[in-house]
Amino acid sequence: MPALEVGRICVKTRGRNAGKRVAIVEMQKNFAVIDAPNMKRKRCNILHLIPLEEKIDVNKGTSHEEIAKIMKK
């Protein structure tokens, strides 16, 4: 099973965006800051994420537009 880390693509399991693919931008204690196309950047409980095998190259300062462009590929 892949670890939750910056750049990991996950599926959100709860909330308004349940079922959508998101990218982890920053890790905090029990939370991850996530971002995706058609969704603003926000904090999410790590228990609400299912990590996938895919990973993208992002940093903490990567803008929303850059992440949306990378994820649409």
What is shown here, in short?
By secondary structure, the chain is mainly beta. The chain contains one helix and five strands. A hairpin with a 3-residue loop joins β2 and β3.
What attributes characterize this protein structure?
73 residues; mainly beta; SH3 type barrels; five-stranded antiparallel beta sheet; 1 helix; 12% helix
Choose one word for the global shape: globular
Approximate strand percentage: 35-45%
Under CATH, the topology can be stated as: SH3 type barrels
| CATH secondary-structure class | Mainly Beta
Strand order of the largest sheet: 4-3-2-1-5
Overall CATH architecture: Roll
Rg from C-alpha positions? 11 Å
Distance N to C terminus: 24 Å
Report the major sheet.
Answer: 5 strands, antiparallel
User: Poorly predicted ranges (pLDDT <50, ≥5 residues)?
Assistant: none
Order of helices and strands: EEEEEH
Q: Based on DSSP secondary structure assignment, what is the total number of beta strands? A: 5
Structural write-up:
With 73 residues, the chain is mostly beta strands. It has a single domain, classed as Roll (SH3 type barrels). It has one helix and five strands, in the order E-E-E-E-E-H. It has one helix at 64-72, and strands spanning 8-12, 21-27, 31-36, 39-45, 49-55. A five-stranded antiparallel sheet has the order 4-3-2-1-5. The chain is globular, with a radius of gyration of 11 Å. It starts with 7 loop residues before the first strand and ends with a helix.
